Amino acid sequence: MKKFKLLAMMTVVLTIFSACQKDELAVEQPTEQLTIFGDQLIGVSVDNNCLILESEGDFQKLLDYLVQEGDDFFPEFEKTMNFDSYRAYYERNPGRSEKLIDDLVATILNPEGAIQIGDYLFKTNFKDEKTEVYPLNELKSENITGSRSPILFNWTDDVFALLNNEAVLKSYCSSDQDRKYDSDFVGWENSNSNFYFTAQAKLCYQNLGFIHTIISKFKIVNYRYSSGTKPIFLFEMDINGHYDRKNESIRTINEHIEGHVRNHDDEISWRPFYGTRRVQSFSLTSSFSYVASMYSITPFYDGYAANFTQLSISCN
């Protein structure tokens, strides 16, 4: 698997009116940091274990950076920011919502599903499939959870467009819950019965209203190994299709992704689309396949048959 290195980071301290914390929403006077990730200056800080982004633009820059570095980098980002994300918390504890599939989204939310972007605090309600938005510039009391109702948005809303009184992009994607598909490969065992594994393929349109992603993921979800030469597996994905956004040309997707995996939870993944604004339409197909390889011998394939499945999602 590809390894990612954390690039040098510099900080400049500014002051911003914002906050969020675990059990209540509060108004404080924390410090904001402008952080340099690579060559990107991003207004991001952490207060009371909540990511604070100075603007929607900074939020998009952070998403760009995380996607560029890859999913293996997410723990390094959390460690550097001293941030216990939703992803990290529910790796240690049970209870992660099955509706939160993309780890990019899970990495920018805290365990309560909250993040501050600009003058708004966003809190995700997984049970009701809503996003609660608290305008920070309207807060008058220190603790607002019991006294002020949030603005409620459906996950299918184009939240930033609505908050900014902009023209809302018409979308044919009326729901995202019927656009998550997965397939478990039949568990595979070698002739000596010394190892067994299950591979899971996913193709998902993840939509919380203020963040939208399409992700193709291929992962080992169950693995047992006892003796002998430990195999690795060549995982491959071919993603084809297109997506469309208003005032942009149709983006054609034709991508091949591959990687060698050998342990429980190892995966390869790729996002054809991600961002703060939703897509108008899309149609994508991912083909997933794997073959077993002998480990430590440059690797060569040992005769086991390839395994194949295909998933498709569309919103037209």
Describe this entry's structure for a reader:
The chain is mainly beta. It has two domains: 11-154, no CATH class; 180-315, Immunoglobulin-like (Sandwich), CATH 2.60.40. It contains five helices and 17 strands. It has an eight-stranded mixed beta sheet with strand order 1-2-3-4-5-6-7-8. Strands 9, 10, 11, 12 and 15 form a five-stranded antiparallel beta sheet that branches. Strands 14-13-16-17 form a four-stranded antiparallel beta sheet, with no helix packed on it. β2 and β3 (40-46) form a beta hairpin. It starts with 10 loop residues before the first strand and ends with a strand.
Order of helices and strands: EEEEHHHHEEEEHEEEEEEEEE
Major sheet: arrangement of strands: 1-2-3-4-5-6-7-8
Query: How many angstroms does the end-to-end distance come to?
Result: 35 Å
What is the number of strand segments? Answer: 17
Q: What is the average per-residue confidence, as pLDDT, rounded to a whole number? A: 79
Major sheet size, sense and barrel closure: 8 strands, mixed
Q: What's the alpha carbon Rg, rounded to whole Å?
A: 21 Å
Low-confidence stretches: 1-19, 21-32, 140-146, 296-304
